[in-house]
Amino acid sequence: MSINATLIAQLIVFLILVGFTMKFVWPPIVKALDERAEKIAAGLSAADKAKAELSNANKRVEEQLSSARNDAAQRLADAERLAQSIVEEAKSRASDEGAKIIAAAKAEAEQESVKAREALRQQVATLAVKGAEAILKREVNAGVHAELLTRLETEL
């Protein structure tokens, strides 16, 4: 191979082209590649950060759900206790009312019994007076008196 002026000229043009490329073309390409690498690294970092935040958010959501479940269970237990106490109170009131009604009925029955005894006494007194009148209207006779007394006994 012979080295002639064409080869040297091509070598000079090639070196100028390499120099031009290294000075003007290569830095923007390297800069674009570096920016692209930084964007990719930032995206990966953001994705990792988002994963961590998602994990933390899921943990907080689970804690809140657990807290809400516990709160709901506590409220349900409180409501059941309140309902039980209301039922017990109603039973107590009903028992008290029943006792009052029974006492009132006994008192009323006692009053009716007293009224009936009083009415019976009045009737006995009236019958006694009628019997005495009948005895006094008739003559005094032991047989007749005995007969009147037995009639009075049967009427009583």
Describe the structure.
The structure is a single chain. The protein is mainly α. The protein has helices at residues 5-137, 142-155. α1 runs antiparallel to α2 (142-155). The protein is rod-shaped. It starts with a helix and ends with a helix.
Task: Write a concise synopsis of the structure shown.
The protein has helices spanning 5-137, 142-155.
Biggest beta sheet summary = none
Question: What is Rg?
Answer: 61 Å
Mean pLDDT reading: 88
- The residue fraction in helices comes out at over 70%
Q: What is the oligomeric state here?
A: single chain
Task: Please count the beta strands (DSSP E, at least 2 residues each).
Answer: 0
Ends: how far apart?
A: 170 Å
Approximate strand percentage: under 5%
**Structural class of the secondary elements?**
mainly alpha
Which SSEs are present, and which pair or pack?
Elements: H1 5-137, H2 142-155
